[in-house]
Design a protein that fits this description.
The protein is mainly α. It has 4 helices and 2 strands.
């Protein structure tokens, strides 16, 4: 569905991003881990599994942990305030400035539930800061 997001979708498609079938029965998590094992590059993962409306809370999923473990890649959390301006259906909610914030790389020793908790805490804190700044 992200390929249909305004601006972002076009850039994702042009950059060669691969859409993922997120249905549980698709086996996409195992396919992703297998596809990226031994490959150098970068992956953008939405750890909640979907775009979430500002103010809503959705648990972070463990897929990022599987990818980080399988690839050995570093994890760099990213936060944005884009949800304030682009709804889930791709409609613009009004004028504003979308900000993307790259957070510091996480230490390699973080793994499992501890890694997921740090990702969630950092992303949610920064997202809330960016949204308050945009108000």
């Amino acid at each position: 569905e992200l390929l249909w997001a305004p601006v972002f979708g076009l850039y994702a498609w042009r950059a060669g991003c691969v859409p993922v079938d997120r249905r549980p029965q698709s086996g996409s998590a195992a396919k992703l881990v297998s596809a990226f094992r031994g490959v150098s590059g970068q992956i953008v993962v939405y750890p909640q599994g979907t775009r979430v409306r500002p103010g809503d809370t959705v648990a972070y999923r463990r897929g990022i942990l599987r990818l980080a473990d399988a690839t050995g890649w570093r994890v760099i959390p990213v936060a944005t305030n884009a949800g304030q301006f682009w709804s889930r259906n791709g409609k613009m909610n009004g004028p504003g400035r979308v900000v993307i914030s790259l957070l510091p790389e996480l230490p390699a020793h973080l793994q499992g539930p501890e890694l997921l908790a740090v990702i969630e805490a950092q992303v949610e804190t920064e997202t809330n800061r960016l949204m308050a700044e945009a108000d």
